């Protein structure tokens, strides 16, 4: 009976030891990947105020951020997706240069921590989002172009989903613009010809 108990005791110790090792490895993996902790979030709303998507920004390893966007009830196809400089999403915003309503103009331009770079080198430029025929889409990317603190500055930041695909200024020099210049023009270098702003969400700390 004593031997049997000893065997059970040793087995229990071994099991507990194995469990501790497993937990230690798991903790190490979580630490290396940021622990999967969601740090920032946003709800994307269209011009009518309908929630059409969500954003999450999580700390990843080695100074990177994991950006996840999920949308529904969005027109099928490719859509430009960018982080913009200002955390204000006014669907009735007016462009001062034209005096006309320009939805979500208040979100400003693309986040750019390096003023010398154009599109697609802006810090807030993200991969184009593909939406299926059912109106659903999911995009996940990892970037080292910004950290969470850059999105929570004094005027905040916003995630903007555009109406059209983003060509990422990939215009070969065999194409000539109306002014006779080869390659991408100023408009393309600004936003990749991704059209109007379909939806916008103010980025904030996750609760």
From TrEMBL:
The keyword Oxidoreductase applies. GO terms for molecular function: copper ion binding; superoxide dismutase activity. Its EC number is 1.15.1.1. It is an enzyme of class 1 (oxidoreductase). Residues 52-203 form the Superoxide dismutase copper/zinc binding domain. InterPro entries: SOD-like_Cu/Zn_dom_sf, SOD_Cu/Zn_/chaperone, SOD_Cu/Zn_BS, SOD_Cu_Zn_dom. It catalyses: 2 superoxide + 2 H(+) = H2O2 + O2. Pfam families: Sod_Cu. Residues 1-31 form the signal peptide. Binds 1 copper ion per subunit. Its cofactor is Cu cation; Zn(2+). The keyword Ribosomal protein does not apply. Gene3D superfamilies: Superoxide dismutase, copper/zinc binding domain. Keywords: Copper, Metal-binding, Oxidoreductase, Signal, Zinc. Belongs to the Cu-Zn superoxide dismutase family. Destroys radicals which are normally produced within the cells and which are toxic to biological systems. May play a role in favoring mycobacterial survival in phagocytes. This is Superoxide dismutase [Cu-Zn]. It comes from Actinomadura rubrisoli.
